Amino acid sequence: MAVNGVEAFDLLSRKNYDAVVLDVHMPKMDGLQLLKELQKFKISARILMASSDTKEGARVTIEALEHGAVDFVHKPDSALACRNLKFKDDFLQTLAVVAGSGAQVAEKCRKPVTVQTVKRNLNAGRAVRNPSAGKKVVAIASSTGGPKALQSVIPKLPPDLKAPVLVVQHMPAGFTASLAERLDSLSRIHVKEAAEGDVLEAGNVYLSCGGMHMKVAPGAGGKYRIHYSDEPAREGVKPCANYMYESLIGSDFDEVVCVVMTGMGADGTKGIENLKAAGRKTHVIAQEESTCAVYGMPKSLVNAGLADQILPLEQIAQEITLNTGVM
Fold it and tell me: What is the model's pTM?
């Protein structure tokens, strides 16, 4: 246990730990400063952030994820709330994922992405791409490691992308607005936290609000709009990407470009399976294992035989653009 950030840095510089639970606010050196110092001195640590959902706390949490934190837990407002069984279960589950992430980092070092792998994965989808054919929608699902992964995808999309982009990132309420603001500041394409009733427009990214399920519903003039539902959590998460994918079954988009990125669990698999079973044309991209913080959601998709392409993170934005085209 460290009583302040300086003591934590000293401990981490002298010893390796399975995982570190790091608060945002600490005496002498706050959590964000500590992460920056660890990066500066190339000290490796598997960090789980504990953060409040205030605007400032959410902003710092997003920055912490950019600077190497693997994931975060929403810190309860009172000590009494910490005794809640759901908080305990969520905390321990997330901590286990963070503690296990080191093995995957080591695996990345042992199995780098080769040029041959990239070429093979890119060529796998050449025959099915046709960006000039009809209107399309892009639907992205991500979880643990997702905020950082999204920063490798969304800012690379062109502002005149010929499709709207829907994003479900597993996050509690209070954090997604800060993530949307951060992505928007880094991107040429417009990014916003989706609001109830937003009309889907090409060249815009709609990030699901935390704590609610984002769906697509028909609107006036043949347009589609954002609709939120308060149904129970599914796959243990809320928002759940399965609901997003299934809401597109009744739409008249000519193709749904599905992208499933880093995260624990299997969210996205059932929704995409149901989308395909309904006869909807899809093009499905799964993030390649060595570039994932946690190879759970993409692995589930690949094991189910649903992926048309398996791509390293740095190739995903290019492939989305090639599949949808520009206006």
Answer: 0.83
